[in-house]
Specification:
The protein has about 100 residues and is an alpha+beta fold. About 50% of the residues lie in helices and about 30% in strands. The chain contains three helices and four strands; from the N terminus they run E-E-E-E-H-H-H. Helix 2 packs antiparallel against helix 3.
C-alpha cells in the first residue's frame, strides 16, 4: 500500500489559524490530516465518502492539493494572480455542485 506525506498550511479549527499540517495519502487518496501545532488528527474514511458522494466529485476534491501543486509548479505568477478569486469563489462552486448531485 503506497504511502506519501506532504506538508501544507491549512486552517486548523482547534488552533483557529493557518498552521502547518501533514497530509498522508494511501493509494493516492487522503487518509489522514494532522495539525503539526496541536496534533489534532482527522481520519478520512474512504468507504464512507465513496458510499455517500458521487465518485467523480470525491476524486476531484481529494486530488485538488495535487492539482494545485502542479499549477503552481507550472507557472507561479499565474497561479498567484488567480488564487484570491478562486479562494473566494471555490466554496460556493463546490456547494452548488454538491447540491445539484
Amino acid at each position: 500500500m503506497p504511502k506519501n506525506r506532504i506538508e501544507a498550511d491549512l486552517f486548523c479549527v482547534i488552533c483557529e489559524k493557518d498552521t502547518p499540517h501533514e497530509i498522508e495519502y494511501k493509494n493516492e487518496q487522503i487518509s489522514q490530516i494532522t495539525c503539526k501545532e496541536c496534533s489534532i488528527q482527522i481520519q478520512i474514511n474512504q468507504e464512507f465518502v465513496n458510499n455517500h458522494f458521487k465518485e467523480d466529485f470525491v476524486k476531484r476534491v481529494l486530488s485538488k492539493p495535487t492539482r494545485m501543486t502542479a499549477e503552481m509548479e507550472a507557472d507561479l505568477s499565474i497561479f498567484l494572480k488567480s488564487l484570491p478569486s478562486r479562494v473566494i469563489s471555490k466554496p460556493y462552486r463546490v456547494y452548488k455542485e454538491y447540491k445539484e448531485k
